[in-house]
Amino acid sequence: MMSSSSRRKSSARPSATRLKPEGISARIRNRAVSIARGKYNLSVEDFALAYDAGLDKLAARRKTLLIAVLCSVVATLLIWVLAVTVPETVSWIYSYGVNSNLPVGAGTLTTVALMSIPFTPPFVLVFALANLLFPPSIGPQAPSGLMSSFQYGEQSKKHYLIFVVAGMFGGLNCILLWLGVETAMGK
Known about the structure:
The protein has helices at 4-11, 21-36, 44-85, 87-98, 104-133, 148-185. The chain is mainly alpha-helical. The chain has a domain at 57-185. Helix 3 packs parallel to helix 6 (148-185), helix 4 (87-98) packs across helix 6 and helix 5 (104-133) crosses helix 6.
Protein backbone atom coordinates (compact mmCIF):
# COMPACT_ATOMS: atom_id res chain seq x y z
CA MET A 1 0.00 0.00 0.00
CA MET A 2 1.29 3.45 -0.87
CA SER A 3 1.90 5.95 1.81
CA SER A 4 0.30 9.37 1.61
CA SER A 5 3.65 11.07 1.05
CA SER A 6 4.47 8.86 -1.95
CA ARG A 7 1.02 9.52 -3.43
CA ARG A 8 1.59 13.25 -3.13
CA LYS A 9 4.94 12.98 -4.88
CA SER A 10 3.56 10.95 -7.77
CA SER A 11 0.52 13.15 -8.31
CA ALA A 12 2.33 16.43 -7.97
CA ARG A 13 2.79 18.13 -11.32
CA PRO A 14 4.90 21.22 -11.88
CA SER A 15 2.68 24.23 -12.35
CA ALA A 16 3.26 27.00 -14.85
CA THR A 17 4.23 29.37 -12.06
CA ARG A 18 7.03 27.07 -10.87
CA LEU A 19 8.84 26.88 -14.24
CA LYS A 20 12.44 27.84 -13.98
CA PRO A 21 13.68 30.77 -16.08
CA GLU A 22 16.18 28.38 -17.70
CA GLY A 23 13.24 26.36 -19.03
CA ILE A 24 11.61 29.37 -20.60
CA SER A 25 14.84 30.64 -22.14
CA ALA A 26 15.55 27.15 -23.45
CA ARG A 27 12.16 27.06 -25.18
CA ILE A 28 12.77 30.46 -26.74
CA ARG A 29 16.24 29.37 -27.87
CA ASN A 30 14.87 26.11 -29.33
CA ARG A 31 12.16 28.03 -31.20
CA ALA A 32 14.76 30.42 -32.67
CA VAL A 33 16.97 27.51 -33.71
CA SER A 34 14.08 25.70 -35.41
CA ILE A 35 13.22 28.83 -37.38
CA ALA A 36 16.86 29.34 -38.32
CA ARG A 37 17.25 25.72 -39.49
CA GLY A 38 14.56 26.24 -42.06
CA LYS A 39 11.58 24.33 -40.76
CA TYR A 40 9.52 27.25 -42.02
CA ASN A 41 9.48 28.24 -45.66
CA LEU A 42 10.33 31.92 -45.63
CA SER A 43 11.22 32.41 -49.28
CA VAL A 44 10.59 35.79 -50.88
CA GLU A 45 8.61 34.26 -53.76
CA ASP A 46 6.16 32.51 -51.44
CA PHE A 47 5.80 35.64 -49.37
CA ALA A 48 5.09 37.74 -52.49
CA LEU A 49 2.52 35.24 -53.77
CA ALA A 50 0.74 35.12 -50.41
CA TYR A 51 0.78 38.92 -50.22
CA ASP A 52 -0.63 39.21 -53.75
CA ALA A 53 -3.38 36.69 -52.97
CA GLY A 54 -4.20 38.68 -49.83
CA LEU A 55 -4.41 41.89 -51.86
CA ASP A 56 -6.77 40.22 -54.33
CA LYS A 57 -9.03 39.09 -51.48
CA LEU A 58 -8.90 42.57 -49.99
CA ALA A 59 -9.82 44.16 -53.34
CA ALA A 60 -12.80 41.81 -53.73
CA ARG A 61 -13.83 42.57 -50.16
CA ARG A 62 -13.54 46.31 -50.83
CA LYS A 63 -15.90 46.00 -53.80
CA THR A 64 -18.44 44.15 -51.67
CA LEU A 65 -18.15 46.73 -48.89
CA LEU A 66 -18.52 49.59 -51.36
CA ILE A 67 -21.72 48.01 -52.72
CA ALA A 68 -22.99 47.61 -49.14
CA VAL A 69 -22.25 51.29 -48.41
CA LEU A 70 -24.08 52.46 -51.52
CA CYS A 71 -27.10 50.21 -50.93
CA SER A 72 -27.41 51.29 -47.30
CA VAL A 73 -27.20 54.99 -48.25
CA VAL A 74 -30.02 54.47 -50.75
CA ALA A 75 -32.08 52.49 -48.22
CA THR A 76 -31.59 55.12 -45.50
CA LEU A 77 -32.60 57.93 -47.85
CA LEU A 78 -35.64 55.95 -49.01
CA ILE A 79 -36.74 55.36 -45.40
CA TRP A 80 -36.34 59.04 -44.56
CA VAL A 81 -38.22 60.21 -47.67
CA LEU A 82 -41.02 57.76 -46.97
CA ALA A 83 -41.23 58.73 -43.30
CA VAL A 84 -41.29 62.47 -43.98
CA THR A 85 -43.76 62.35 -46.92
CA VAL A 86 -46.35 60.15 -45.18
CA PRO A 87 -45.71 60.61 -41.44
CA GLU A 88 -49.27 59.73 -40.41
CA THR A 89 -49.04 56.29 -42.01
CA VAL A 90 -45.60 55.62 -40.54
CA SER A 91 -46.78 56.75 -37.11
CA TRP A 92 -49.88 54.55 -37.35
CA ILE A 93 -47.84 51.49 -38.39
CA TYR A 94 -45.37 51.93 -35.54
CA SER A 95 -47.95 52.77 -32.89
CA TYR A 96 -50.10 49.73 -33.68
CA GLY A 97 -47.12 47.48 -34.34
CA VAL A 98 -45.40 48.26 -31.06
CA ASN A 99 -48.54 48.57 -28.92
CA SER A 100 -50.32 45.55 -30.34
CA ASN A 101 -52.46 43.08 -28.43
CA LEU A 102 -50.43 40.15 -29.69
CA PRO A 103 -49.07 37.52 -27.32
CA VAL A 104 -45.83 38.42 -25.56
CA GLY A 105 -43.47 36.62 -27.96
CA ALA A 106 -45.19 37.79 -31.14
CA GLY A 107 -45.49 41.38 -29.88
CA THR A 108 -41.78 41.49 -29.09
CA LEU A 109 -40.95 39.99 -32.48
CA THR A 110 -43.13 42.58 -34.21
CA THR A 111 -41.46 45.41 -32.29
CA VAL A 112 -37.98 44.14 -33.15
CA ALA A 113 -38.92 43.71 -36.82
CA LEU A 114 -40.36 47.23 -36.99
CA MET A 115 -37.38 48.81 -35.25
CA SER A 116 -34.94 46.99 -37.52
CA ILE A 117 -36.30 48.90 -40.52
CA PRO A 118 -34.81 52.29 -39.51
CA PHE A 119 -31.92 50.70 -37.55
CA THR A 120 -30.37 48.35 -40.11
CA PRO A 121 -29.42 50.60 -43.08
CA PRO A 122 -27.35 53.11 -41.07
CA PHE A 123 -25.81 50.26 -39.09
CA VAL A 124 -24.69 48.57 -42.31
CA LEU A 125 -23.54 51.93 -43.69
CA VAL A 126 -21.24 52.72 -40.76
CA PHE A 127 -20.08 49.11 -40.37
CA ALA A 128 -19.10 48.78 -44.05
CA LEU A 129 -17.59 52.27 -44.19
CA ALA A 130 -15.48 51.65 -41.08
CA ASN A 131 -14.27 48.34 -42.51
CA LEU A 132 -13.37 50.16 -45.73
CA LEU A 133 -11.45 52.87 -43.89
CA PHE A 134 -9.82 50.51 -41.36
CA PRO A 135 -9.29 47.22 -43.23
CA PRO A 136 -8.03 44.16 -41.41
CA SER A 137 -4.41 43.17 -41.84
CA ILE A 138 -3.51 40.91 -44.73
CA GLY A 139 -1.49 38.61 -42.47
CA PRO A 140 -2.70 35.35 -40.97
CA GLN A 141 -6.11 35.37 -39.32
CA ALA A 142 -4.76 34.10 -36.00
CA PRO A 143 -1.52 35.90 -35.16
CA SER A 144 1.27 33.74 -33.90
CA GLY A 145 4.62 34.42 -32.38
CA LEU A 146 5.85 37.16 -30.14
CA MET A 147 3.14 39.58 -28.97
CA SER A 148 0.40 37.52 -30.66
CA SER A 149 -2.01 37.95 -27.76
CA PHE A 150 -1.51 41.72 -27.90
CA GLN A 151 -2.19 41.75 -31.66
CA TYR A 152 -5.30 39.63 -31.18
CA GLY A 153 -6.50 41.95 -28.43
CA GLU A 154 -5.98 45.04 -30.58
CA GLN A 155 -7.84 43.47 -33.52
CA SER A 156 -10.69 42.47 -31.21
CA LYS A 157 -10.91 45.98 -29.79
CA LYS A 158 -11.05 47.45 -33.29
CA HIS A 159 -13.85 45.08 -34.37
CA TYR A 160 -15.75 45.72 -31.15
CA LEU A 161 -15.42 49.50 -31.53
CA ILE A 162 -16.64 49.37 -35.13
CA PHE A 163 -19.62 47.27 -34.07
CA VAL A 164 -20.52 49.61 -31.17
CA VAL A 165 -20.21 52.78 -33.26
CA ALA A 166 -22.35 51.25 -36.02
CA GLY A 167 -24.97 50.32 -33.42
CA MET A 168 -24.90 53.85 -32.05
CA PHE A 169 -25.55 55.30 -35.50
CA GLY A 170 -28.41 52.85 -36.05
CA GLY A 171 -29.98 53.88 -32.74
CA LEU A 172 -29.41 57.56 -33.51
CA ASN A 173 -31.20 57.13 -36.82
CA CYS A 174 -34.19 55.56 -35.02
CA ILE A 175 -34.40 58.50 -32.60
CA LEU A 176 -33.96 61.14 -35.31
CA LEU A 177 -36.52 59.43 -37.52
CA TRP A 178 -39.00 59.40 -34.64
CA LEU A 179 -38.37 63.11 -34.07
CA GLY A 180 -38.71 63.78 -37.81
CA VAL A 181 -42.05 61.97 -37.99
CA GLU A 182 -43.33 63.81 -34.92
CA THR A 183 -42.22 67.17 -36.34
CA ALA A 184 -43.74 66.45 -39.75
CA MET A 185 -47.03 65.59 -38.05
CA GLY A 186 -46.95 68.86 -36.13
CA LYS A 187 -46.81 67.36 -32.64
